[in-house]
Amino acid sequence: MTRGSLGIAAIVLAAGCSSRTAPLHKLLTPDATGLPMIARTLRAITASRANPVIVVLGHRAAEIRSAASTDMPAQNAPRFITAPDHACGLSQTLAAGIHAAGTYPAVAGALVCLGDMPLIGTALIDRMIDAFLTSPDHPGVLPVHDGRRGNPVLWSRSLFPTLMHLTGDQGARPLIRRHEPDMLRVTAGPEITADFDTPARLADFARCFTDG
Description:
By secondary structure, this protein is an alpha/beta fold.
């Protein structure tokens, strides 16, 4: 981000305990090339226009950070933080990331990404950023496929205070319901709803990215 310009931060939520795939942790699971899921997710995000990239850790933080750093390019390397209250729910992990993003004065908004959505590509991220920076008076940007919204979600800085005061384990869903009519929409593919949070889906992920 150049001095005096506005930019968009990316917040990658990677603090969960991955209970649905226990004893395996989904973010540590390798794809067909051996790259851990969290590193695969970050590869697309760090290649985008998002800056800074903030990874919020919690459960098994040291292992997730090590896996996330696998084959990490030096350019746009992420900043790692730990959510002290991550065990209290997704909202606390999100709040920690939003707080960190808010310390950058030139950040006009934050793209909230899930660590277990490695199919999200750089092109979609950049189109969402472009859409918001073209019309920054909107509360944010939603990706939509066949009429269904998904992740990631981009939020305007004006909503950072509200995002930091959410509670529970449902993240920003109540805020989406409140502001959805006024949010920008970007057409996307089915990857915006494709996560890997069951043993069967982890087996699918292990066969992904055979071309590297």
